[in-house]
Design goal:
- By secondary structure, the chain is mainly alpha-helical.
- It has two helices and no strands.
- Helix 1 packs antiparallel against helix 2.
- The longest helix is centred in the C-terminal third of the chain and has 39 residues.
- It starts with a helix and ends with a helix.
């Protein structure tokens, strides 16, 4: 996990917790949204890395 995504998740959790403590449902929802966005970006980045790995492994096989 990248440091940026980890920080985004942490900020989202803090925002969600603050919203719960203060009864601010909008802030709580924003926190959940921030966490979901960070997870989605993380998953997309991981998919790109896996695709690159597959491409690299296929091109390596062709060279032998």
């Amino acid at each position: 996990m990248s440091d940026d995504k980890a920080m985004d998740k942490l900020k989202g959790k803090a925002k969600e917790a603050t919203g719960k403590l203060t009864g601010d449902r909008r802030k709580e929802a924003e926190g959940k949204t921030d966490q979901t966005k960070a997870r989605a970006e993380e998953a997309l980045g991981g998919a790109g890395e896996r695709a690159k790995g597959v491409k690299d492994s296929l091109t390596d096989k062709d060279k032998h």
